[in-house]
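Hello, quick one for you while I still have it in my head. I'm working through a protein record and want to make sense of it properly. Would you mind checking whether the tokens look sensible for this chain? I owe you a coffee for this, so here goes:
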Amino acid sequence: MEVVHLYWSDINFDLQTARVTSKPALGFYPKRWEEREVPIPVKLIELLKAHRPRPGCKLVFPSPTGNREYHMLDHCKAVAKRAGLDDAQFDLKTFRSTYATRTLRTGFDVRTVQHWMGHKSLETTMRYLVPSKEVHARLDQVTVPGLDEREASGRKAPAQEITRTRSLAAEVAIARV
């Protein structure tokens, strides 16, 4: 609903942010009634700059008639389908949770993400700190000093040492996630 009610005046192109603000005339109030600023990635800022505002319309993404567009999910599913993706896996809540999870995994602190998401409780934001499904693939790419030299020379390390080394590598990978 935040995107449905986004006005052009809510976007600060210089600071690359969008303000989530109340729109009482439209009956829209942000989550927990808290207005906030959310950063916008530079690629999205460029797309928004290229997006032409409809004359006389404050909304960034109006419906064809110039009102609020309540069919955002249908549009997202259509884009997914055109991209050859399973549109059944797309819903607006998933986009929101993906944003939270990815910002946390990228290294943003929990309090900042809490603010961006409009969560009142830190525990709500912490729910997005789920273990990564890609951790094993990333773990296998971790180079381990000593082990890699043995494999290169054709010598095999004892099984116990491999287990201990993989355990250490897992701890390193988790620390980086």
